[in-house]
Fold this sequence. Notes:
Layout: E1 5-10, H1 16-25, H2 27-30, E2 35-38, H3 45-54, H4 60-84, E3 89-92, H5 95-105, H6 113-121, E4 130-135, H7 138-145, H8 157-173, E5 178-182, H9 187-202
Parallel strand pairs: 1-3, 1-4, 2-3, 4-5
Amino acid sequence: MRGKLITLEGIDGSGKSTVAKKIQENHKISVFEPVFTREPTRGTLTGNAVEKTIQSDTDQLAELFLFTADHAEHLAKLVKPALENGKTVISDRYSDSRYAYQGITLKNRLENPLEWVKSLHRGWTVVPDLTFLFDIEPEIAVERCGKRGEQTKFEKIEFLRGVREIFLSLAAKEPERFVIVDASCSPEYVEKTVVQKILEFVQED
Length: 205
């Protein structure tokens, strides 16, 4: 039986990665022996290339293709094999982040960047079974980022407003897949909410 793919999405500063770490340590979740992962991938050739572009002035299209290459490698080496072995995979960021972020970075280059980026993934990516969208006002998110936000081009208020809008539009189009979480709440509350939903989801079968 094919495993289930669960993804955690949201703008920078939403607390998503903090909660992802908490979930990994949660004994209720660990019983199911899920595979925890992330995008960009860590310690890989493609993942390292992506990390460098985040801190540099790389051309936006080149940046997109590096992110997409990392996604392809991630799918081939980890996600698909784990799912085929019946494992539950939980990924901190996935393809929806690419749609949202590159949908904004490419808005001055392409007529409909969101649909164009989505079209690049059709036919070969794996659509998540469940996606948590950590929703938060960009002003709060940037404040949370602190000095870290001064070092990356993706953590600016105006930019994150656009990214958030795309995330919410994606969720509105696929309400059966997305669970919107109020990320302005305490990490403990958010973790409890996400863990409960994950448990309900993996126990459905």
